[in-house]
Amino acid sequence: MQTTGLHKLINITNLTESTYILSIEKNNLVFEAGQHILLGKENDTDQREYSIYSGVNDEYLEVLIKEVTDGSVSKHLKSLVPGEMLNVEGPLGFFGLSKDKIDSGNFLFIASGTGIAPFHSMVKTHPKLNYKILHGIRTCDEAYGKESYQPDRYVRCASRDTECDYNGRVTDYIKENKFDKDTNCYFCGNFKMIKEAMDLLEKKGIPAGQLHAEVYF
Ligand SMILES: Cc1cc2nc3c(=O)[nH]c(=O)nc-3n(C[C@H](O)[C@H](O)[C@H](O)COP(=O)(O)OP(=O)(O)OC[C@H]3O[C@@H](n4cnc5c(N)ncnc54)[C@H](O)[C@@H]3O)c2cc1C
Question: Which residues contact 176 (CB under 8 A, 6 or more apart)?
């Protein structure tokens, strides 16, 4: 059920200079992995959508946010201190795993930057999931939460770093690799990456009905 209310900020964890995790009191918010919330400071009408990063059974509600240069809400949220209150509305959206495929399906998750957030929630929520993640990042330090994934299921595709798993964009990785036709593909992050990756996978024979996207910007 969708709710609107004030939730207390428990903690801020800075992962890099610009990217951080907010841990927020859950109150009675019940969600499905892949959904997002609308988040803003108390007494501020400015809110933005953020995918839920935590698993459905975790103690706190978590979001992974990148402070956008010249952005408004992503900057304001970074300046909060634990104990302050946040406006939370949600859960929202339908970017979730097909229930009938969770136990037996084969999933490919393709993310750019903080677009990894809904997949982190899905993997935490469903520990037996048969998945592979392609994470598009610039440098290895942007592999947010990599310890949450089995190393053989998580590929860091870094465009400006040769020290990660794959040197290049997720789209280059897709071009060079084979994917089973029954793969269920989920894309999250910036529109350009999603469009290119979707087109490539469709050309490789994955039916359009198995392609699901959440566009951030
Ligand atoms: C369904 C959904 C879920 C989202 N989940 C997340 C999430 O989990 N984590 C997260 O960090 N963001 C997420 N976003 C993006 C988020 O809602 C905001 O757009 C972002 O935080 C910028 O808000 P702002 O007020 O700081 O900047 P604004 O003042 O609103 O925008 C400034 C500019 O930055 C662009 N922009 C937005 N996001 C980015 C980005 N990541 N990198 C570069 N430019 C960007 C916008 O298009 C705009 O042109 C999500 C968006 C949607 C629609």
Answer: none
CATH code, 3-92: 2.40.30.10
Assign domain 99-215 one CATH number from 3.40.50.80, 3.10.20.30, 2.60.200.40, 3.40.630.30: 3.40.50.80
Task: Give the predicted TM-score (pTM) of the model.
Answer: 0.98
Structural domain spans, the chain? 3-92, 99-215
Tell how far CA 182 is from the center of its chain: 23
Quick: pLDDT tens for 194-215.
Answer: 999 999 999 999 999 999 999 9
How confident is the model over 118-141, as pLDDT tens digits?
A: 999 999 999 999 999 999 999 999
Rounded distance from Cα 48 to ligand 1 centre (Å):
7
- Residue 1, pLDDT score: 86
Give, as one character, the DSSP assignment of residue 127.
T
Alpha-carbon 48 to chain mean position: 15
DSSP string computed for 70-123: T-SHHHHHHT--TT-EEEEEEEE------GGGTTT--EEEEEEGGGGHHHHHHH
Q: How far is residue 1's CA from residue 118's CA, in Å, rounded to a whole number? A: 19
Instruction: Using most ligand atoms within 8 A of CB, pick from 15, 19, 67, 217 the residue to mutate for ligand 1.
Output: 217
Separation in Å, CA 182 to CA 11, 73, 106, 136, 194:
40, 39, 7, 23, 19
- Residue of the nearest CA to atom 28 in ligand 1? 71
Atom 17 (ligand 1) nearest CA:
49
